[in-house]
Design goal:
Layout (H helix, E strand, L loop, with lengths): L4 E7 L5 H14 L4 E5 L5 H11 L1 H7 L4 H25 L3 E5 L2 H11 L4 H12 L6 E5 L3 H19 L13 H17 L4 E4 L5 H20 L2
Parallel strand pairs: 1-3, 1-4, 2-3, 4-5
Helix pairs in contact: 1-9, 2-4, 4-6, 5-6, 5-8
Amino acid sequence: MQRGYFITFEGLDGSGKTTQLRRLAATLEAEGHPVVTLRQPGATVLGDRIRSILLDSKSEAAHGPIAPAAEMSLMFADRAQAIAEIILPALKDGKIILCDRYTDSSEAYQGGGRQLGSERILEMHRAACDNLQPDLTILLLPSLEASLKRARRRNHRHSQQAQQGADENRFEQESDDFYRRIYEKYEEIAAREPHRVVVIRDDASIDNIEACIKKIVATRLSSVAQT
């Protein structure tokens, strides 16, 4: 059996990556491909517990801020569990894995946003994840101005949801400078790994971005099938 194919989706909060992941999953399944989808943090029982710690702003307000190194460690604990429980078995079974965030997010958010630096994140990835890399990463990265505007819109929406009891807006409360550092780190990652990371910069419609992603993935899968 041929090894599966591992695709990750990256981008700032509000970039539309989750919507595009779901659309691609539907397309691939309609074409007869076995598909597994997951998000990080989350996707496992342990991961969901970690997610509630990392994303709940109310928890931080009650118990104090999470140290950047602790935040990084929790992200990788979630990732290591997802790799063991979901990703490696799916790869072994020849499935296509679509993952909403992966180590690039840690490098961007903790390495860039929290200013821990890339090397610390990459060392953690080698130690906790056995350096497992995606075959393809779709990075949705419109202009910084558009990205910040979307992040602020998302922040407002999540703040309204939090008043009704739902709260995953801890990161959305960060400053524009925090998001600027994330954006710059994503740019750095894309420049460093151009074969793996495909950047979609256009602030286009959802349908147009979907068409672009479908074309990219079809080309990559066709290339794999021919090897």
